[in-house]
Amino acid sequence: MSALVLVENEVTYGGQYDHWQDLTGVSYQFPNQYRNKILPGRRFVYYRGVRRANHQRGQAEYFGMGRVVAVWRDPSVPESVPKARWHWYCSVEDYVPFPKPVPAKIDRKYLETIPNALGWRTAVRELPTEVFAQILALANLQDLDAETVDETPLSSSPLLAPPLDAVNPRDASGGLDGFIQPHNPARQPSADGTTSSYRRTRQSKHIGDRAEEVVIKWLQAKLEPMLTPSITWVAQQGKTPGWDIEFVNEHGDTVSVEVKGTTGSVFQSVEITMQEWEAAKARREKYWLVLVTACLSSQPTVHLIQDPYGLLANGNLEITPVLWRLRRV
Questions:
Q1: How far apart are CA 190 and CA 173, in angstroms?
Q2: Worst-scoring range by mean pLDDT, 69-73, 86-90, 175-179, 250-254?
Q3: Dist CA 246 CA 244 (whole Å)
Q4: Per residue in 54-112, pLDDT tens?
Q5: Is there a smaller number of Cβ atoms within 10 Å at the N or the C end of the chain?
Q6: Which CATH number fits domain 3-156: 3.40.1130, 2.40.128, 1.10.10, 3.10.590?
Q7: Structure confidence at residue 193 as a pLDDT band (50, 70, 90)
Q8: What integer best gives the mean pLDDT of the chain?
Q9: How far is 155 from 263, CA to CA, in rounded Å?
Q10: How far does the chain reach from its first CA to its final CA, in angstroms?
Q11: What gap in Å lies between CA 122 and CA 149, rounded to an integer?
């Protein structure tokens, strides 16, 4: 299948389309008219126009790519309304931001052939294979083959992450708001959807390793210089104690750091193994859960959750078993 363009503007003309509830790299909401275009398995590139938040303007550009996974009807829209007014969601995997955004116009010529000005208002557009390949090349992804990109886990390519010395991790602010989305059934595939939001995708290890590298760099900047030599990447040593990184704090106590990463802008939920949760329960305030969003970008955001088991006990988090292992006896 050819690729798509998914428009995700920061703001729109007159604000009449600003209500769409998109989560970059996580999920995309769209009207019924595009239901036959957005199909599981289709690759896409993200596009945004010139309008930016706070009345700013920027270049029209393509800024990332991914793959459609599940598609489901938005249950917040009653089935009784005319079908033309239905809304849909799709979930996204293999999302990667482009190392550099690709301008929509090169040498005064648009990359896409749009018949008229109204065509740029189309939220979901077909993207010819040759234009898709051109966008990849302009994003410095020229080694990827656009003809076989449907079978390629793009996030596993080292081309897609900047050198670690060019990465500047940022501390999150505002608590969990905006970092982990509150549970919203509309944004979750139904039980008969084509995918499970809990399965590990093919690029999971690459994303996890990168997130751990980001957190080590973040710790090196956050801790007192005398403590940084104690930082140990236990996961890289093949150890699985229930955390990925550890260090010794100023009191001589070992702090356990479990890292979770996503290429998207937020987490819809965070997967925790039984071993990790038992470690969190045993170590309490000496157990850190560190979440990294946009972990393949040059400015990933890092959020520290200290004593996640305590937050559960206080009612700030909830935990749900989502996987059972069956074996023959």
A1: 32
A2: 175-179
A3: 7
A4: 788 899 999 999 999 899 999 999 999 999 999 999 998 888 888 789 999 999 999 99
A5: C
A6: 3.10.590
A7: very low
A8: 84
A9: 9
A10: 44
A11: 24
Distance CA 37, CA 92 (A): 15
Give CA 41 to chain center in angstroms: 17
For residue 171 the two structure tokens come to: 């501390």
CA dihedral 77, 82, 83, 86 (to 10 degrees): -30
Residue with tokens 């990790």: 276
Residue 199: pLDDT band with limits 50, 70, 90: very low
Tell me the C-alpha distance between 281 and 277, whole Å. 6
- Token pair in block for residue 261: 């990463």
Rounded Cα distance between 274 and 44, Å, is 35
Query: Which amino acid type is present at position 33?
Result: Q
Residues whose CB is less than 8 angstroms from the CB of residue 36 and which lie 6 or more positions away in sequence, other chains included:
none
pTM: 0.75
Task: Find where tokens 């090196």 sit.
Answer: 220
